[in-house]
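User: Can you recover a sequence for this backbone? Please restate the input before giving your answer.

Assistant: Of course. Working from this structure:
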């Protein structure tokens, strides 16, 4: 599992999204270059749900939203160059 040690229960949503984008962007690049689609980003993000539940104070719904925003932003950064 990739390291999210910089995230803790005092991290803001913006800080968490920023860390996740750093983590997800290289994966998005790989997917785009291999011709894969966005659904793989979501599957990858799901792997971090339990870790975020343990490390943050956010609800399941908030974590889902954080992961989705980080996935979307990572993917768009790579598609739009």
């Amino acid at each position: 599992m990739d390291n999210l040690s910089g995230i803790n229960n005092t991290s803001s949503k913006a800080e968490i999204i920023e860390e996740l984008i750093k983590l997800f962007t290289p994966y998005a690049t790989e997917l785009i270059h291999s011709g894969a689609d966005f659904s793989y980003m979501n599957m990858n993000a799901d792997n971090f749900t339990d870790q975020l539940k343990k490390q943050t104070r956010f609800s399941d719904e908030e974590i889902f939203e954080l992961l989705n925003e980080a996935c979307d932003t990572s993917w768009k950064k790579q598609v739009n160059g």
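That completes the design. Residues 13-34 form the longest helix (22 residues).
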